[in-house]
Amino acid sequence: MKIAIIATALFAIAAPAFAAETVKDSAAVAPVIAADDSLYREFGGHDGLVKLVDDFMVILLDDPRTSVFFVDAKQDHIKKMLVEQFCVVLNGGCTYTGKGMKESHAQLGIDRASFNALVEDLQKAMDKNDIPFHAQNKLLAALAPQHRDIVTN
Ligand code: HEM
């Protein structure tokens, strides 16, 4: 319950606030949200992000609301791209080499409920990895506006 409320609230608050910074289907998939690498270090740096994203994919595959999207997808590739993307957002000094969010999700027919489910699952993975609450909120607030390019249904 706590998770659902936070996800919904962040969505409502963060989306308008970040609207001006959202770049339409660019490789710059989300704004960089930290002035230095302190937030990146709170996520455990590269190794922390790899562990987080591994756990995230396990949770996504175990969740009937999201598993249908990921079961036949290139999971290793998606995980690698998520590590890069989170690293960029957290100012960890990486380069994102994947596709833009609009292009990579265009054919998937994702609705708002599925998007919110994925956000909840990311929160679960961050809880499991003891990411501090304030750091969790910063990443979620940066990712929330992506729904404009990802939700097509
Ligand atoms: C803020 C939310 C999201 C972020 C940051 C995100 C990020 C990404 C990234 C980085 C990729 C890899 C792009 C590439 O191939 O280069 C990807 C692909 C993918 N995403 Fe997402 N995603 C989000 C939401 C979702 C949601 C809500 C779903 C489904 C419920 C989803 C399903 C997928 C699938 C199935 C692929 C693989 C598509 C393919 O086969 O090419 N994503 N996503």
Automatic annotation (TrEMBL):
<dbReference type="GO" id="GO:0020037">
    <property type="term" value="F:heme binding"/>
</dbReference>
<keyword id="KW-0479">Metal-binding</keyword>
<dbReference type="GO" id="GO:0019825">
    <property type="term" value="F:oxygen binding"/>
</dbReference>
<keyword id="KW-0813">Transport</keyword>
<dbReference type="Pfam" id="PF01152">
    <property type="entry name" value="Bac_globin"/>
</dbReference>
<dbReference type="InterPro" id="IPR001486">
    <property type="entry name" value="Hemoglobin_trunc"/>
</dbReference>
<feature type="signal peptide">
    <location>
        <begin position="1"/>
        <end position="19"/>
    </location>
</feature>
<keyword id="KW-0732">Signal</keyword>
<dbReference type="InterPro" id="IPR009050">
    <property type="entry name" value="Globin-like_sf"/>
</dbReference>
<dbReference type="InterPro" id="IPR012292">
    <property type="entry name" value="Globin/Proto"/>
</dbReference>
<keyword id="KW-0349">Heme</keyword>
<dbReference type="GO" id="GO:0046872">
    <property type="term" value="F:metal ion binding"/>
</dbReference>
<feature type="binding site" description="distal binding residue">
    <location>
        <position position="105"/>
    </location>
    <ligand>
        <name>heme</name>
    </ligand>
</feature>
<keyword id="KW-0408">Iron</keyword>
<protein>
    <submittedName>
        <fullName>Bacterial-like globin family protein</fullName>
    </submittedName>
</protein>
